[in-house]
Amino acid sequence: MEFRILGPVEARRDGAVLPLAGSKIHTVLTALLLARGRVVSDGRLSEFLWGWAPPTTMKAQIYTYVSRLRKQFADDIEIARCQPGYVLAAGDSWVDSVEYDRLDRLGREALEARHFDKASTLLAAALELWRGTPFASTTEFLCESEVPQWEEAWSTTLSCRIEADLALGRHHELIAELTRMVAVHPLDERLRAQLMTALYRASRQGDALSVYQQGRSMLREELGIDPGPVLREVHRQVLDGGEFVPPGRTRAVPGALPGTTGPYGGRTASGPTGAHGPLSAGRPVPAMLPPDVTHFTGHALPLAEVVYELRGSTRPPHAGRRHRVVITGMPGAGKSALAVRAAHLLRDQFTDGQLYADLGGTEGSRPDPQGVLRDFLRALGTPAHALPDSAEECVQLYRRVLTDRRVLVVLDNVVDAAQVATLLPTGTRSRSILTSRAPSVLDGAYRLVRLHPLGTDEALALLAAVAGPERIAAEAAAAASLAELCDHSPLALRICALRLADEPRARVTALLSRLLPVRRRLDELRHGDLDVRAGLRSGCAALPASSVRTLLRLATLPENDFSAAAAASVLRTGERAAEGALEALADARLIDVTGVGSDQRLMYRLPTLVRLFAQEQPPKQSPVREQGCARPGR
């Protein structure tokens, strides 16, 4: 038997994946494997499965999950009842986490002994066992408890492997990798020192010094400190211009995102708690964020941009920095997923709590901002009986409460400025993340982060993270075609990946064949509460009738890519008027501006999925009136 938990959880017999569907089954299996032959109590399993709110049938359900595992494993693996819980005897089975620990230990021993080639090989092999976020298909409760320490181990392994490669003179090959890592972790002094070492040895002394100056500026602006001894020593040796030894080893990677570890930003342990939940200086700490996004893949640079913009010092931001970030993109571009992921990465930066509200929906069913404001005040510790009656007094109280607190406010699916006028913090300590398809309607200064369709590599990585890397690699051409049919949209790709994960024996080509007929493609792009059609419908809901008519007419063009002149022919208007109509749809993120044509005029693109949605609409019926909108942007 083989067990893989450093990514989506899998059990294999003779190379075939066993059908263990569902996060609960994966959670029980992972907990038993992590225990490595020790008993896992019913209480511990309950915490991993349901957190602090287990059902009354807790023990019966745990027994059911264990019985299902026993049935799948037959005589290969024994899961015994051993009070007060269960124990799994893996025998001679191969477990990726156990193999990772073995390779990591041997690699670091080789590094200590200065056997650099052996160390690099062993540590690289250890890292290759990771297929994404560990325990990715388990519950949020298990991930919250177990992922941080494993991500810390990943960081250490990577740091040691880079050290071995530097000792072997592989500085040219390391520059690109280290540049990416420093961009994601700009305050990580060890990574910056390793990048300086690689640049210097590649005869790029000026670039190495520039990397140091950038790091020193960031440390001073963000944390109010100077570089530490490791980075200063490398700087001194670069200035001296002689041969030098790369920075020494440390067990943990210093200077990583505060409160996060490893490549995925898992959280450290939470702070003290009181009778009403976590406390900060004796005050309740709201924790309203949705669960962190599993299998988050792609959009690495936008994610780094959001995190860097909002993290660091509680002092007023320097010139060019903002108190708020607005994430925008087409329906299904992953705005909400990115906002939630960034907010979780920033949790320990905002020690006074995180507030969250989804302001989406259709007109008439959107949350009342005043109701959201009252929910925020209660979460911040204001008793219900102390809430003011008037809306104006509630706003004043909210701003007064946040004056001396460092809180992150996440407002998802914002439609217009009126929705958020009373919900945005006004002090210098708090920050906010907003997602919106039409940020131009928002007031005030903010940093705009645009999301574009995923690249092919990112799309395939998303499919692999959810459906399994070997499966996607085995049908790489079909998977790439699937990404094309999905317009490289994260929402559509996630739906396809989940459908594949639900049917372990189904081929990618089978799903591809179901999506090929254009008339049924949107029907196929649904899974649970994820629905591409519903997201597009919601995206059209806020459009004026004139923009809806423009969209429906553009869907009659023979090609997805077109100019304003071509659009004018189907809009039955002049070219200048057509440009204004197209600009409105581009602002609503329903068409793309793709570049400039040979006549120096803008070129536009109508994504295939948007075209298919528009072609479904009756000519004189606006999609705004249709019901059943799902939550967009995921």
Structure notes:
This protein is of the alpha/beta class and 634 residues long. The protein has 5 domains: 1-168, Winged helix-like DNA-binding domain superfamily/Winged helix DNA-binding domain (Arc Repressor Mutant, subunit A), CATH 1.10.10.10; 176-269, Serine Threonine Protein Phosphatase 5, Tetratricopeptide repeat; 284-450, Rossmann fold; 456-528, no CATH class; 541-625, Winged helix-like DNA-binding domain superfamily/Winged helix DNA-binding domain (Arc Repressor Mutant, subunit A, Orthogonal Bundle), CATH 1.10.10.10. Helices cover 48% and strands 12% of the residues. The protein is built from 26 helices and 22 strands. It has a 5-stranded parallel beta sheet with strand order 14-15-16-13-17, sandwiched between helices. Strands 3-2-1-7 form a 4-stranded mixed beta sheet. A hairpin with a 2-residue loop joins strand 5 and strand 6. It is globular, with a radius of gyration of 26 Å.
